[in-house]
Amino acid sequence: TGQSGADVAKPDVNVTFKDVTITPQWVAGKMRVNRELLMNVPYLSTSIPQTLLYSPVGLYAAENTLITTYLSTNAVSYAGDKTIGVEMIVDAAFGQMLGNYLQADYVLLNNYDYVEFIALNKADGSGEYDLPNGLQVAIIDGSLFINSLKAVPVPSIPRHTAYVIASSEFEFLTRMGAELRMFEQSQDDAEKNKVLFRIEEMVA
Fold this sequence. Notes:
Helices cover about 30% and strands about 25% of the residues. It has helices at about 35-40, 45-55, 60-75, 85-95, 110-120, 190, and strands at about 25-35, 105-110, 135-140, 145, 150-155, 160-165, 175-185, 195-204. The strands form 2 sheets. It has a 5-stranded mixed sheet. The protein is elongated, with a radius of gyration of 24 Å.
């Protein structure tokens, strides 16, 4: 109630939501192999899908590049005063982001930084492996956690760069999940006894 018991309007919190149109795009790759190779080398039937999905030229590497390119374009820079890698990560998550009511739960960083700053963090003087006081680093179900942040090593992220993420504010949209198909009649494959493997997904 206001002055003399009169009702007053609730305050406007001035939050504005912006409409954004996103067009999903194809992430895809292909490779051709000689049919006799598939007949004579049995492990290729499993090796080819693994290569198309998980190798440095595979689908998930391309997907990582898509995500990290978006992050590098839109991320807010670290604004704290820490200079040690792992301390900067914690300060960004629980100081800068939580100070803006964003609950950080992931940190993406280069795999070499993952080793240097976290897994093999070495004290300057004594040479023992050490982390700042109060910092909790643990392996849970095979994943490394820094306090409550899940650390994810990503080779396509440049060294000495990390992205602290509040996943509740970020969505990776999958219009069509990863699909692997095999063709024997693409171009002149039937004449030359070749087999085409194609992997693709549609995401944004």
